[in-house]
Design goal:
The complex is a heterodimer of chains A (264) and B (199). With 264 residues, chain A is of the alpha/beta class. Chain A is built from twelve helices and eight strands. In chain A, helix 7 links the parallel strand 6 and strand 7. In chain A, helix 1 crosses helix 11 and helix 5 packs parallel to helix 6. Chain A is globular and about 55 Å long. The longest helix of chain B has 15 residues. Chain B is elongated and about 55 Å long. Chain B starts with a strand and ends with a strand. The chains are: A alpha/beta (264), B alpha/beta (199). Bound molecules: adenosine-5'-triphosphate and magnesium ion. Adenosine-5'-triphosphate binds next to helix 1, strand 7 and helix 10 of chain A.
Chain lengths: 264, 199
Amino acid sequence: MGKAIVITSGKGGVGKTTAVANIGTGLALRGLKIVLVDTDIGLRNLDLLLGLENRIVYNLVDVIEGRCNLKQALVKDKRLNNLFLLPAAQTKEKEAVSIEQMKFLVHELKKDFDYVLIDSPAGIEHGFRTAISGADEAIVITTPEVSSVRDADRVIGLLEANGFENLSLIVNRVRFDMVRNGDMLGVEDLLEILSIELLGIIPEDENLIISVNKGEPIILNADKYRSGLAFSLVVKKLLGEEVSWEELEKSESFIEKIFKFFRG
Amino acid sequence: MSKISVKGDLREGIKIIVNPNLNWEEIKELVKEEIKKREKFFKKSHVYLDLQGKDIGKEEWYEFQKEILEKYGIMLSKELIRLEISSANTAKIILGPIRSGRLLTSRDNLLIIGDVNSGSEVVCHKSIFVLGKVRGSIWAGYGNNEKATIFALELEPERVQIANYILDLSLIDNKNKKLGYWIYLEDGELKVNLYSGGK
Ligand SMILES: Nc1ncnc2c1ncn2[C@@H]1O[C@H](COP(=O)(O)OP(=O)(O)OP(=O)(O)O)[C@@H](O)[C@H]1O
Ligand SMILES: [Mg+2]
């Protein structure tokens, strides 16, 4: 039996889908059998980040409504043959999937995969409750903005109330230069407020936009881009290996120095 | 009885007890001497002057209070601000953090071990003690209980209320780091005191 992990945030647009695509790809690079489930019905995105939008035939709602079986709906990744996507339906509403149906679906997937990563929609309504229903663990993602932190706090409270014990935090879009100048909440401040375990720190990185447009998760270029490196550290930590975050901050100051050198 | 004595304990804070048979001038002299002697110990604390029932005019008291505050930075009070949890000494103990969106209510005193986060609300009929940082909203003495007090290790709240009084948040001094903050109602006003634990 594999493990099901939901990635959620409360606030929208903080990087859930980006995280699912990259962590999923990273775990698959390690040879594990991975399926990514897009539960953001009506606003599907995950297919685009993986560059799989043209390969979708069936979706999650088709499976639930019996138009196809689970295997038929899974889309195999372009690059890695142990990575699969179960896409969301773009033309349905969140209510098209019930909590019971989601639990059953995730349970079925866990039989065949090492990890089932579930991309949750924003908010704390039905879509969120459905997304978390089948998961064993949860990753909460936030940016260092106060509004995002407060929503993360709310979501952590809801997850705890739903019996989740293994919760961890990814802080996304961190700008170490701003933290150093006191213009941005630091990771330590966030951990103090949210009091959960840190899973990763992802720096702000404009290269992510290019990677999204290309449909190629940036973790595939962990040697070139700092956000790719950061996601590879998340994968390491998720697998229980030792991680040092200083590596990241160093990589940033290194890149900064190069820029400064060219700018003169 | 002796003319003057000083007591400091966790239940009652720092207390100066004077003999009520002395006149006001004598009392003032004695208290000043005592404070001078222990200036360091008293500094930034709230000191309760127990007049044992002796009546002092409002004006005279206010003058004296002002003098001591200006000279020594010590706030004198005529009413006992007890660190008392209640006569029965009971409290509901809650492990924090109290997260955003949660409403925590209690009829009994409340001891919260952990933070009260932004976007959460704590409402209690009696006193609230927070062994952590308050970033959210807390209301002690709900139901017009003016004896309720609030204690917090750190205080950067969104809203603080005791009984029907809402705290003016600009009264919170976040620069002088002490052990914690006491909030209580005195003379129809909410006061915030830095609690130094007798140090
Ligand atoms: N570390 C980062 N640096 C720069 N841009 C980022 C970073 N992380 C995410 N983004 C950008 O932020 C936007 C939102 O990201 P994403 O779609 O992953 O968020 P989401 O939480 O899934 O949003 P939604 O709530 O709408 O589902 C995207 O354009 C993405 O490229
Ligand atoms: Mg998304």
